[in-house]
Amino acid sequence: MGHCMEMHVRAIKRALFLFMAVASSASAEQGVSLNEKPLPPQAQMIDGVMIPVPNEIFRVLDTFQDTNWNAILRPDLAALRPEGSTAKIALSLGLVLGEGFLAISARDALAMQDLGRTAIRLSRALGIDNAMLRRQKSVLESVDRKDWATVRKEWSSVSEDLKTAMIEIKSESLSQLISLGGWLRGLEALSVLASSRYSTPTAQLLRQPVMLDYFSKVVERMDSPLKEDPVVKATRGGIIRLRPLMADQQGIAVSQREVLEIRKVSENLIESLCSQ
After folding, report:
1. pTM (2 decimals)?
2. Contact, 219 vs 39, CB < 8 A?
3. pLDDT of residue 63
4. Could you give the C-alpha distances from 263 to 188, 190, 271, in angstroms and in order?
5. Percent residues over pLDDT 70 in the chain
6. What's the CA gap between 103 and 97, in Å, rounded?
7. What are the respective helix, strand and coil percentages of the chain, to the nearest 5?
8. Span 229-234, average pLDDT
9. Residue of 232, 242, 237 lying closest to 276 (CA atoms)
10. Which of 158, 215, 233, 243 is 20 to 30 A (C-alpha) from 269?
């Protein structure tokens, strides 16, 4: 493998961890641990909570200078409304937060303005809009000025603010669903990258048994009313379909067919949230 290829694989691998860090910024469910494997530099544990390290996240995204981020963005996420169950709204907020990191890398001012407003609407429906409003005013003003350094800083702080707010209103399960939504958006984006540039080393990075086990346990340990929510049940079904595609297969590479199937499952889950 040449030097350029090695650099590309390392960048993709860091990107994978990047999305896991973004997704897992919310409070960890009691009894569920991610300590089975060392954390990447894009995440850290604080009092049992895994949170993203913003500077590392954006440093990783910056390595993808030749990526057309605009082709990976999902404009439909900015159109999400605070409708349906609280579970659906929490998952939707996670999708929007994950999308924001990609939109910032694309320097898409219009997308960020739309995502910021959508995040406020969704947060208000969950009763945590004060935490979001503190950041979003600065985000939107900085986007207008095209001050992307400040946009990065403020958006990076949103997840931590939301985590604190969710703890204050004792909504740990909804906090986990925000994490799950962010993970799904990151998984979809990664599968798009892997399918458009298929190679054995990059495809192999989609094997994520630890994250699948983590979110499976999170859903299983939720109280029955939330666990039986149709949106949560559909998402759990998607995780079950992903398991044989992403589980550890003792070094066997993820095939191109499996990469495309992972992309299909993750896209279908997100599209179902957008259409309900």
Report:
1. 0.83
2. no
3. 60
4. 6, 8, 12
5. 74
6. 10
7. 70, 5, 25
8. 93
9. 232
10. 158
